[in-house]
Fold:
Amino acid sequence: MSHPVLQALLPVVILIAIGYYIGKKHWVSANGTKDLSNVVFLVLAPALLFRTMSNVHLEDIDFRPVLVYFAAMWLVFGAVLWKLHFTRRAAVLGLASTFSNTLMIGVPLVSLTYGEEGLVTLFALVSLHAFVMLTMVTIVLELALELENARHGKAPKQRRSITTRLVGLGHTLFKAAKASLLHPVPLPIVCGLLFAQTGLKLPSVIDQPLQLLGAAFSPVALLLVGASLAVTTLGGHLRVALLLVGMKNLFHPLVLALLGLALGFSGVPFAVMVLTASLPIGANVYLYAIRYKVAEQEVVAAVALSTMLGLFTVALVMLLVGYLP
Structure:
């Protein structure tokens, strides 16, 4: 029980299991789960993110491991896109192979494993994670949609000029970028960093409530993960789901680790990036599958299976991370 991997992972497993039991017992209704999700994302997460980053100075953050993380992500995403050809389905499955659940599982796990130092590195990634990845995949999906429409003769009756198409694409990208920046995850990180640069300290009357709310985030988020798993079915997409789990939970962190080692990276920031790459698939992937009407059931199955098997694959990656320099 004294092994550091067990010490970090076991509380996560227990809380997810309790949440699963709560879901199976229907102690929280479907609407109640949605309400709880709003509390986690709109109240608890911003409190934790803002308070943590309000004491961090930009010169103390090493963004180089974050750049390596994105490089590995683009390599894996590009490989999926090449293998499945340039289609909406390929883009969504590529996103599923690279987009981590950095908040609900990543924050508690990194906090237990690496403490405040690890969280600062993780939040540096989280501040850019959704913006970079979702903007990128929006570009790919919009271009793929145009190509599919052209291939199948579904282009608009009135042929649009290249200028009109570019303006439409630009409008879509602007909306995606705006939504990513004003999201309740990156926004408090940026606000916290800006506040930290002023050199001011939060008054205790504000700091203490934020501390209490932030402390509630990890247990409530993990209970919510378990409750969500209790009402999710895998359907008939087990094979695709298993392939995506292999790509996301194992291949993605492997590519990141090899790339980082080749570039001479080491230490806690690099270990945090490898661990983050091994996290289960994030829920935002499902939102894109719904929006572009492709691979919805495959993604639902993959997110659920990735989270369930993630308890084992993350443990394996954590053991191997211990051998990194």
Q: What stands out?
A: The domain at 4-125+190-321 is CATH 1.20.1530 (Na+/H+ antiporter like fold). The radius of gyration is 20 Å. The chain has twelve helices and no strands.
